[in-house]
Amino acid sequence: MTRTDNRPQPIRFSFEFFPPKSPEADGQLWQCISELSRFQPQFVSVTYGAGGSTQAPTLSTVTRLIADTPLATASHLTCVGATKDEVREVVRTFQAAGVRHFVALRGDPADGVGSTYRPHEGGFANAAELVLGLKEMGDFEISVSAYPEKHPESRDVDADIDMLKRKVDNGADRALTQFFFDNDVYERYLERVRAAGISIPVVPGIMPVQNLNQLKRFASACGASVPQWLEKRFVGLDDKPQARALVAAELAAEQIDDLRRRGISEFHFYTMNKAPLVSSVLSLLGVRDGQPVQTGAAA
Ligand code: FAD
Prior knowledge:
Elements: E1 12-17, H1 23-37, E2 43-46, H2 55-68, E3 73-78, H3 84-96, E4 101-105, H4 127-137, E5 141-146, H5 157-169, E6 174-179, H6 183-195, E7 202-206, H7 212-222, H8 228-233, H9 241-261, E8 266-270, H10 275-284, E9 287-288, E10 291-292
Parallel strand pairs: 1-2, 1-8, 2-3, 3-4, 4-5, 5-6, 6-7, 7-8
Antiparallel strand pairs: 9-10
């Protein structure tokens, strides 16, 4: 996969947001959207809460994004805890709001990540079935998940890649990965994905480290690893938020820069609804108003 010339392709990126749970969080989200939209992302996406718990806030956020901004907007959708008819009803509601792109996911049981997933009686058994269900309803653009370090429930990486293949065979256009920090792991995964005959983009999910302890909690819940070298970069910075922010921006820019040298040009940012760090990362990469310039870390 490593490219022989070192010239990076033009960078493209998408931003993931989560629906706000309070008026204060609502203000923070729209401030974040306003700040990041100047970078002209390929698309933005809005997550869907565990067990379908944030259906209404997800709908109102994507509705406002579609109505009030020029941003191409995707809605995440899960099929956990719902019958196929209930999911179809949700899809029709989102479709009426103008949604044409879904990030189609199985989701986790409402009682938490790690508890055993059981398909709802009469529901879609997994994301591959959901993709097929969506394709039967309309010509949607469909993104799905991928797991370079294996999904915690999967037997092994091969089982994961089999599931990804089923999602692609059913109509998925793009995979967005769980976040990771070791680019070699992603590169090895991508080689196996390609060897399995999967040719859709498998877009690295980039998680700028807003808060190391929170990141470690997320990572252990979703089976991602946080390398020691990354933790070491934050040693001694507990009381130095500005230095932490600098290190976090540098880390993500370095990761993307290295992936670009390996031939990757598309990235999905887990923004955590916070613009400053993502803005810093893009600035370090030389991105100005969506146009890559040949200065900074990626040049
Ligand atoms: P699938 O693709 O169906 O399966 C994932 C893997 O689990 C498969 O590779 C398969 O090997 C294995 N597997 C599935 N079913 C079984 C089974 N019965 N037995 C054994 N192995 C099995 N969650 C939300 O609630 N809302 C969101 O908005 C959201 N957004 C996400 C966005 C991205 C980019 C990613 C990577 C994840 C997101 N998630 C979200 C998390 C996701 O819902 C969980 O990871 C969930 O556990 C799996 O959903 P999936 O679509 O990846 O499942």
